[in-house]
Design brief:
The chain is built from 17 helices and 13 strands. The chain has an eight-stranded mixed β-sheet, with helices on both faces. Strands 10-9-11-12-13 form a five-stranded parallel β-sheet. The longest helix is centred in the middle third of the chain and has 32 residues. The structure holds nicotinamide-adenine-dinucleotide. The site of nicotinamide-adenine-dinucleotide (NAD) has 25 residues, from helix 1 and helix 5.
């Protein structure tokens, strides 16, 4: 394939070398003349394991040429990978000046190109940039609509500096964000042989998931480091602790707890976080990330309160009350806190949770609910139809299949729903259902 690569930094230079190695004809483009000179001479512009030999080899093979002429590169290739830098601006926003200027140059170069051209954005871009900012620039400058003359897609790059050739050859996956099958087919020819899943998604998802991956990596590093500072103060071996934490592949290093939903609660997480933060304070250890979790959880709960109140409903049914479906544990259940807040706002609430029988509650569980919802007996309905009978809005806080099936059958057309648990698709099709933050 004839490929042009714009931006010959870590991402672009490694892609150029690997694609030329794989037999493609590659044109490298950069505004930095010194990088072009180095490549012309067969020298790598970035320090990376394996790049010295690979660049020498691919330049000698005649598969690589470099230029600073955008038009030359666009007309001499069928596919372009855009890998220019998108650094932080002083206010923390993404500085997109290089990618936007380049998009305008590419648009102008496309004016008199007759064969269709595929533009693959590989620079990390804030969600929405490709479709809402770059596409209008390209359409304006080329005087062509997307799909006629050029195709756009976004392919996040997952290589890590230091191991970038190895990561190029074995990425965690290939993600292609596109709104049209043509660029996906082209990229399958370029990257479909790699030993990983090839996944098609929307452009917005592909842009966001790149941010999400980097945020998750930063979160994991900070978690390990905050844990280590506390361990150090307590005289505990942080490496041993984290090694054992990582050994749990069921709950810790797994998809568990990584699905959007309602706030967490229950008898363990909040109290143990509070105790961890207290322990840190008493040892003069600052843990800003662990210290912020309960506050973030509180804001998530407030979001649900705001959503309910914004509907204007004065009679609300809450389906589910315990902190997790399948238990009657009400201690620190976020649904109890939600119920408390709504009652405080004058909402007439009826609650149904088949797992919660007031007569059977004991000990600290009983004490908790009596303190938080003293009139709980008047709020609890014995069956679903009773709970629903007067409700304008139904809050879905349970994942019980039996309860959801019954709800789908008993719900009336005018009753709205607020979904806190991401109920599986299909059951409430055609109903007035809104997700908490989805
Ligand atoms: N470095 C990484 O490990 C990594 C990994 C994944 C994703 N990314 C993302 O990929 C993008 C590139 O990162 P990088 O580290 O390779 O950046 P870099 O700063 O090393 O290289 C960017 C290159 O783009 C060139 N450039 C700027 N404007 C240009 C223009 N108009 N035309 C042609 N070239 C131009 C610059 O001269 C520079 O050589 C960024 O968005 C980054 O967030 C980087």
């Amino acid at each position: 394939m004839r490929i042009s690569i714009f931006g010959l930094g870590y991402v672009g230079a490694v892609s150029l070398a690997c694609l030329a190695r794989d037999g493609h004809d590659v044109i490298g483009v950069d505004v930095d003349a010194s990088k072009l000179t180095m490549l012309r001479e067969g020298t790598t512009p970035v320090v990376e394991e394996g790049m010295v030999d690979l660049v020498r080899q691919v330049v000698a093979s005649g598969k690589v040429r470099v230029t600073d002429d955008v038009r030359d590169a666009i007309h001499g290739s069928d596919v372009s990978l855009i890998c220019v830098g998108t650094p932080s601006a002083p206010n923390g926003s993404q500085d997109q000046s290089a990618v936007l200027r380049l998009s305008a140059d590419i648009g102008r170069a496309l004016v008199d190109k007759t064969e269709p051209h595929v533009l693959v954005f590989r620079s990390t871009l804030a969600p929405g940039t490709v479709e809402k900012v770059i596409k209008p620039i390209l359409e304006r400058e080329s005087d062509k609509p997307e799909g006629k003359g050029f195709h756009l897609c976004f392919q996040p790059e997952f290589l890590r500096e230091g191991t970038s050739i190895r990561d190029y050859d074995k990425p965690p996956f290939t993600i292609i964000g596109a709104s049209d099958p043509h660029p996906v087919g082209v990229l399958r020819q370029l990257f479909g042989h790699l030993p990983c899943d090839f996944i098609e998604t929307s452009i917005g998802t592909a842009e966001m998931m790149k941010y999400c991956c980097n945020n998750f990596h930063a979160l994991k590093i900070t978690f390990a480091n905050e844990t280590a500072r506390l361990c150090d103060a307590l005289g505990v071996d942080a490496f041993e602790v984290m090694r054992l934490v990582c050994q749990d592949k069921q709950l810790n290093i797994s998809p568990a707890y990584l699905k959007p939903g309602f706030a967490f609660g229950g008898s363990c997480l909040p109290k143990d976080l509070r105790a961890t933060n207290y322990l840190a304070r008493t040892h003069d250890v600052e843990l800003p990330m662990l210290g912020a979790i309960l506050e973030s959880n509180r804001l998530h709960l407030n979001h649900a309160i705001d959503k309910v109140l914004a509907t204007g409903a004065r009679r609300v049914a809450m389906i589910g009350l315990s902190f997790k479906t399948g238990t009657d544990d009400l201690r620190e259940s976020p649904l109890v806190v939600l119920a408390e807040a709504l009652i405080g706002k004058g909402v007439k609430l009826s609650i149904f949770d088949p797992d919660v029988s007031l007569a059977r509650l004991l000990g600290s569980n009983k004490r908790f609910i009596e303190e938080r919802l003293p009139h709980i007996g008047e709020l609890i309905a014995n069956d679903l139809p009773t709970a629903l009978s007067e409700a304008e809005l139904v809050i879905v806080g349970t994942t019980s299949a039996a309860v959801l099936d019954a709800l789908a059958a008993d719900l009336q057309a005018q009753q709205k729903m607020l979904d806190l648990v991401n109920v599986p698709n299909g059951r409430f099709d055609g109903r007035q259902i809104e997700g908490l933050c989805w």
